[in-house]
Amino acid sequence: MIILVMGVVGAGKTTVGQLLAREIEFAFFDADDFHPQANREKLARGIPLTDEDRTPWLITLAQQIQQWQNSGQNVVLACSALKARYRAVLGGPALIVIYLKGTMALLQERLDRRRGHFADSHILMSQLEDLEVPTDGLTVDITQPPAALVATIRQVIGR
């Protein structure tokens, strides 16, 4: 089983994903770790990624997801997965999609407090513009604390 925890920068994908994975005893991976260095450098300079930038990254992730599925590994993957076609490349209906939804004000507040991450508030607007809200997954409101979000997710997925 592959659970995709998705949303824009600052939504809490890593925090919620790690907590969820720990509670349900799945492996956790952050899609940011699969970005090529050029993408990381671009994001660190506040330059949004284009579809062309994202394509090799998405292909790498899709191949990794296929490996996890082939080996029967249960994984929580934190990934922005902003567009429907990105999610389709990653595995489409084979994924359980959890969308972390928040207001721009809350996301900006979180990003203003964040230090040491290569993606920051400079890319928030472009990600919100690119975001295609999933219609085939669970949407959770990030105003709740991470533990409450995970409890909701666990209840819905039956774990």
Short note summarizing the structure:
It is built from 7 helices and 5 strands; from the N terminus they run βαβααβαβααβα. It is an alpha/beta fold. The chain has a 5-stranded parallel sheet with strand order 2-3-1-4-5.
Structural descriptors:
159 residues, alpha/beta, Rossmann fold, five-stranded parallel β-sheet, globular
Structure explained in plain terms:
By secondary structure, the protein is an alpha/beta fold. It has one domain: P-loop containing nucleotide triphosphate hydrolases (Rossmann fold, 3-Layer(aba) Sandwich). Helix content is 48%, strand content 15%. It has 7 helices and 5 strands; from the N terminus they run βαβααβαβααβα. The chain has a 5-stranded parallel sheet with strand order 2-3-1-4-5. The longest helix is centred in the middle third of the chain and has 20 residues. The chain starts with a strand and ends with a helix. 31% of the residues are buried. The mean pLDDT is 89.
